[in-house]
């Protein structure tokens, strides 16, 4: 962990920004870089509603461009002394986070938990919980 970069998945939410502040603090302490990752989940609306006026590939491309712009704006607000790598990919978030952690040989994953409870937790898959269980490196979960 002490010589490997930190992987920090983000969905650009306030909670994810909070997790990134922890990643920055740890990166400064260990003098390592950070890889910010955003996963564009596969679009599913067109399959069920037939309302979209664009193909799924066009939708994914548009979503990736929007994510790249958000990532660019977000990085502009961060500490300039740190080394940031960025990655935007599409697919199932858990699979992509774990795959990216292996690719970049992450020493740690720092990610947010949205803190769902009760029925909301039961009905929505918990990406953070699944990553923490399956990752081959330490995972810091930030609320």
TrEMBL record:
<dbReference type="InterPro" id="IPR006016">
    <property type="entry name" value="UspA"/>
</dbReference>
<keyword id="KW-0963">Cytoplasm</keyword>
<feature type="domain" description="UspA">
    <location>
        <begin position="4"/>
        <end position="143"/>
    </location>
</feature>
<protein>
    <recommendedName>
        <fullName>Universal stress protein</fullName>
    </recommendedName>
</protein>
<comment type="similarity">
    <text>Belongs to the universal stress protein A family.</text>
</comment>
<dbReference type="Pfam" id="PF00582">
    <property type="entry name" value="Usp"/>
</dbReference>
<dbReference type="GO" id="GO:0005737">
    <property type="term" value="C:cytoplasm"/>
</dbReference>
<dbReference type="InterPro" id="IPR006015">
    <property type="entry name" value="Universal_stress_UspA"/>
</dbReference>
<dbReference type="InterPro" id="IPR014729">
    <property type="entry name" value="Rossmann-like_a/b/a_fold"/>
</dbReference>
